Amino acid sequence: MTALRPLPGPQWVSRLTMIFALTAAVVGGAVRQALAQSDGVVVPRVMSLGGRCVHCDLSTRKLAGARFVGGNFETTSFVGSDLRGATFLGSNFSGADFSHADLRAASMTGSNFQGADFGDANLTGVQALNANWSGADLQGARVISGALIHCNLARANAQGARFDDANMLDARLDGGDFEGASFRQAQLLGAVLTGGDFSGADFKGASLRGAVIAGTDLSESLNITRDQIAEACADRGTRLPGGLTAHACANRVIVIRRQP
In terms of DSSP bridges, do strands 48-49 and 67-69 run parallel, antiparallel, or are they unpaired? Predict the structure, then answer.
């Protein structure tokens, strides 16, 4: 039987983890063993998974609606898996591989996806809150109409990713590679873009109210307007397309905490 060892985190995450502890303790070990020994196993539509499953192979599995609560799934492979509507709560997925996975309408709260691979994954309608995606690979990912609220995408590689119509309130994009990404109609209120690469990125109809573009090179970005820039927080290091002028934000202190 797999012993549950919830990751350190806020007390409310710990309480929610305990709600699922008994369920995960009963099925966690059996599920892990079955997945490890048999190919093509179909996991029940409603399943709570916790405990420790580091470097497991859960690729191409049917995990729609599954709940990952308070577990450690570091470097686990979910390549091509069906994770539609799955819940990721207070768990560690650092270095995990979600490339080509179907994560439509998934919920991600307080989980760690640092350095994870979401290349070409479908994250349409994902609902993420306080999730850490720093250094993640999001090349070609679709995050259309999703919510990435208070999420950390610092140093992420999101070349060609689509964030159209996404709510990215207070998201961190600093130091990331967003070359050719699409932010059409996205809400980037209070987001931090400092030091990111946005060459060829499309901001048509996006809201940059309160967004921090200090030290950001947007000179080769597409469809940026005077009205958008007027609402953003810039500095002398901000580079803009021809004809646009940067404006500093009055009475605002910008603090960017670097994570290791």
Answer: parallel
**What type of residue sits at position 225?**
T
Other Cβ atoms closer than 10 A to 42 = 9
Give the CA-trace dihedral at 143, 145, 146, 147, to 10 degrees: 140
DSSP E strands, the chain:
48-49, 67-69, 87-89, 107-109, 127-129, 147-149
For residue 52, the cross-strand partners are 72
CB-based burial label for 176 (10 Å; 0-12, 13-18, 19+): buried
Terminal C-alpha separation, the chain: 34
10-residue mean pLDDT profile of the chain (260 residues): values are 38 34 34 38 59 95 96 98 97 98 98 98 98 98 98 98 98 97 98 96 97 94 94 92 80 45
